[in-house]
Amino acid sequence: MKRKYPDAPVVSVGAIVVREGRVLLAQRGHPPGEGMWAFPGGVVDLGETLAEAAEREIREECGIRVRVLRPFAVVDRILRDEVGRVEYHYVIVDMLAEWVEGELQASSDARQVGWFAAEELESLPLTRGVLELARRALAERVKSNDNVTERRLTAK
Predict the structure, then answer these.
(1) CA 32 from centroid of its chain's CA atoms
(2) Would you kindly state where each structural domain of the chain is located, as residue ranges?
(3) Superfamily designation of domain 10-155
(4) Residue 126 carries which DSSP code?
(5) DSSP per position, 58-96
(6) Which residue ranges in the chain fall short of pLDDT 70?
(7) Cβ neighbours of residue 120 under 8 Å, at least 6 residues apart?
(8) pLDDT at 31
(9) From the CB of residue 132, how many other CB atoms can be counted at a distance below 10 Å?
(10) Distance (Å, rounded) from C-alpha 11 to C-alpha 9?
(11) How far apart are CA 92 and CA 9, in angstroms?
């Protein structure tokens, strides 16, 4: 399936990975959004589940292994050219994931990759919607970790 001027929407995944109060972002190396920071991800291959695609894309782009927890958000990314034709149309399922192992190393489609705290996000050129989703994911993971700590403390 062609990505530029497609005949139908292209199904893609993004991975929202939170580790120690920071979210993983990749600086895109190719259009659309070249130079912008976004959640790492890519196109779902035929026969691949959303979770498998997200985990593969993170390995390829960032050099780490993650475990997908669940779907987090679904977004449409439709970009039109100067005459109004649909140049790109992605339906992106952003998956919440957790770091399992490995050290970050940009490869594949990413120029750079990094872990960013909430206060660092506003200074980056982000693709549309990333700031809101990153903040939501960071808040949710902190709340989730607090609940785990609370359960451990009360279990004693």
Answers:
(1) 15
(2) 10-155
(3) Nucleoside Triphosphate Pyrophosphohydrolase (3.90.79.10)
(4) B
(5) HHHHHS-EEEEEEEEEEEEEEEE-TTS-EEEEEEEEEEE
(6) 142-156
(7) none
(8) 84
(9) 12
(10) 6
(11) 10
